[in-house]
Amino acid sequence: PVAAALTAQAGSTVGFQAGLAGSSQAGGLTATWWVDGVQVKAVAAAHGQSPAFNYAVTDGLLHKVELKVRDNTRLVLETPVASKVWMVQGVASVPGTPTITALTSSWSAITMTFAAPASTGGSPLTGYASLCTSPGRVNVMASAKASPIVMKRLPIGVTYACTVAASNALGKGPSSAPRSVKTRLFF
Are 103 and 110 in contact (CB under 8 A)? Predict the structure, then answer.
């Protein structure tokens, strides 16, 4: 029987465990873990043991996690197999926070290089947006599909505090910690 789907945030890990019944001989049972029809782990076990499996939820889709147990000691033409099924519904969210790795200036331009967030939120990233601010000045915004982002035609000799945020289909994630840079007066 298939249980109702449990939900888990994309980027989290769900643990599964089930007690085994059958052969008491060491290695008399084989427990195999499957995710969406693909075998991901197999262990030799015995009666009374409880093999565990940790599943990392990576997206916002529905996944089937199954434990199949085969009794290796039965003397029959077909090996009896028992199974248990769990359904895991991933829950996507906005992406995590990217990290600015370099912020450089040239005459009237700023180039921001950044690392992608550790979590996409379970949905593919669609782009990045930067914001640079300076007191008494107009905010400067730019976007790109990937690093780097270049902001041009800026006033020279002005210090800007800049951040970057990643987006996916669910929206914009949190902004990075700000980093500051001053546009150069001359080349």
Answer: yes
